[in-house]
Amino acid sequence: MLPRRSLKFPITLGVVMIVLVVLLTVGWVLLSVFGALNSSVKAFYWTALTVGAILFVVVLVGTIIYLSLSIKAINLTRRQSNFMDSVSHELKSPIASLKLSLQTLTLRSVSDDERQAFHRLMLEDIERLDELINHLLDAARLERPDAPDRAEWLRSTDVLLRCIQAVRTRYRLSEDRIRLTGPDARIRARQVDLEMIFRNLLDNAVKYGGEEPLVEVRTRWERGTKPRLVVQVADNGKGIPIGQRRRIFRRFERLGVELERTKPGTGLGLYIVGTLVRRLRGSIRVLGRAGEAGTVFEVAIPASPIETSETAEST
């Protein structure tokens, strides 16, 4: 369940601003009258003038903050509306498809090939519903306080290969459609968190890739006082405009008009990715592909190198 933000601060800020405006108006009126009647009392005049100027600045700053909060609230409402539209569509489409398939299988006799085709279609619809429910549960879990640390040392290549295989199976892709290159590393994290990060990125790359998706997963070391493993997930899609790259990690955020989209989704996948990367003390950014169409998601996570003896044993 999504947390409800408290309205206490905006309401308190609004009340304080109204009180300050009233005090400022009354003060300026009294100051004008008192100054006209007692022109010889300059010290009090300048003191009152200074206090009034400070109150005016406070009101101005409060107005800016209140405007900023209002814009955020409007944007959140818009994203929540898009989210409701997308969830409604994501629920209605597979359910309608399942209903039609079951009615067809019940009301008429079909050949074995047709029955298998209906079974495949129903399985795809169930997987679509399962993914939607998992996204909702994952997003809800991120809003709760952190669970006790169950992190373990994981090999990045093992995690990436599992995620790649899962995405290949889901979209029925050949092995050459998703490629993995680069060094291995040890990352301390919960396995479910790492797999959630890379599975969402790979799913996004395939979903928004070209007509024939081609995804390249590249790893490299980033040396420094705190070594990090950099994982790049590059697709061959249309790319994301520079001005919109920060927005896509917000909760419920999807680019474009919800009811005009052809790609399924809820706007939670990249929000989950960004939140989990930050929890691992890592960073994520979106890049374009030099001279090519497509998008590159670059994740940098603290990691340790694989020892030579360990690598030899694994091979």
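(the above was protein one; protein two follows)
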Amino acid sequence: MPRAMFSEDSRLRTGPVRCAWRDYHRGQAAEALVRPWLALELDRPDAALDLTRDARGRPALTIDGRSAGPDINWSHSGALLLVALGDGVRVGVDVEWLRPRPQAMALAQRFFAPGEAAALAGMAPAVAEAAFVRLWCAKEAVLKAHGHGLSFGLDRLEFSAGRDGWTLTACDPALGAPADWTLHAFAPRPDYLATLAWRPRA
């Protein structure tokens, strides 16, 4: 299968979430790219699947005219598209291309919770930049699962830095409790970081 498609070695399943990634070119419509993978994963004909977006741009999947199926979310950065499908959960995903980010600490001071910004400031520069990207991925994945995206506010959920990475420790009541959320960080390809976030569907 061409690298541009979702190949067998470009897939991951963790808990109730399935995801896959493929090449992406700026300006491509994600709906057209993810539809063949969805049809295979759900064992449904292409015509049975309807992909729409809500007022905030969050994708929604309807199968045979019914909207009670799996939840869907996707993200693209650089030359990579990542799509996730969640069974019985609300799922969000973010992928980031690892490139120089000279303004990372300024962005952290402006948009992150004070404790997060302080934790990043205490790290060696080479470590802090990758930690910033991992934290950004985690926050955006949760906010995309919630449905509001970045407009909800990156400072309305707080992570603590530990030896195993970032852990969600506090969040706005609209997001539920930190314990409601499961996050899985991984590297889909060299030079990319991604995070899946999900919580049980209400």
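Reviewer note on protein two: The chain has two domains: 8-91, 96-191.
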